[in-house]
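Letters spell out the chain; the tokens describe the backbone. To illustrate:

===
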Amino acid sequence: MLKEKNPQHKPIVGESPLISHITSVRKGNFVIEAHTGAGKTTLGLMLYHKARLNEIPEYDVIYINLREAMEVLRGRSGGFEEKILRAVFNHSSDEYKMTERHIYSSTKLSIECSTFYNCIEKYYEREHQKRLILVLDELERALHDWGTLGKVLTDWFTATRKFYESKGFIPIKLSVLLPKILKIRDFEESLRTSNEAVAVFTEFRVLSITDETLRSYIINLASNVNQRFFQLLRLKNFKLLIKILSKLQSGRYIFPKLWEAISNSVCNAVKDVIEGGELEFLTKFNFDLPDINVDALLNPVVVGVSEGKPFRTSGSRSEVINMWENGFSKLCSVVGDNLPGIRGRESVGLRPLRIGYTDFVCKPDEVYIWMSLGKTLTLDAIKTLGNKILESSGTTSASTLNIVALIPEFTRGMPIREIKLERELREKTEERHSKSGKKQVITFRIKYRTIGTEELLSIATIGGLLGFDEIIARNIIHELAQDIASMIVGIW
């Protein structure tokens, strides 16, 4: 129902605290980050429906999917800004009529404006009773080039700040939904460096699906459909399910599992016998709801990842180890595809190496990538890793080797940025290598990148885990690989 502009019934959703944050904080710009499938579009459509139903009475909302809108407007004259401003602010324009199905608006506008600042001025001059929240979704896929994207955002964010400084009022708030990648951090730092006043007026937030969000979904289900659904919040295994799901962050995995659990409870209560239409039945049933079986609903690996036990399984442990190794190997390949010197050709270097069963290393270019699934990060573990790398790579003339370390959120320990290892050099003879008696000190420099549960599950999925959305997993792997590639080519 979220995708319907005027559904017959109110959409049942899990409330995000970001909605009240956007509406209440006295700022004009909001950047909301999340991986693919974590709920960015849902948040935007949720804002639209709340405005449509007058649940945020001070605001109107316009949500636009920019990727889909720009695909429709591709043949039209004018640049990106010109076409989008016409579509958003002038609902009599050809641009709006062409893209109307990709725009959700709780108000009708007839504003002709040439720049975003001009649009804010004219919206303010019309003395609309409500302020406007403009939600921009998939901007990065509409523009592709991050330099252009950064310029557009900087210009528009600057416009909201400039108008606030002149009038002391915020008639339009910008809410931009973007993927969770390091380029956003780079943009944030650039904004702080180039224009501190605009940066202060801009809020960067990560969208998370919390246990509070999942409980609110059930509360809304009970409040709007049937009070009996409140019972679910008191059941032991439902509480456990919510706790596990809230750590996974992929909405397209979480909510189908929650729906399945609710369906199982309802169907078990009535022995699969449902009379009348679905809505009529759900509204009028008056029986108690039984608890569910979490183990029957979720793969042990999924539960294990949420609990910090990535090798948990009901089957073969070696199969789970192979799954992580295969997933890491494919991630390394995608990283290679994102490196300028490798793109379009076979990556060269150290083939994926497994150390014990918790650590994996590859070398798609001049930098090593290390993924650890261990519970603790210690100096001894890093020294072991360094020695294994030196053994596997053979002789090296380099005095410094660089490593990008992927460390799960559940791993404890202090990141160690640099270690020095001493190794004995070998001299090559006609028949073999022999010890030369000379020593070489090699410095390992390490950059760290925390990997969340949705990223771990995506690695597991491309390695063979079933049940997680493969399309979402591959998108998240691509976003993660972009981050790793950025770290590799960055300053050491």
The longest helix spans residues 146-167. Residues 211-298 form one domain. The longest strand covers residues 433-451.
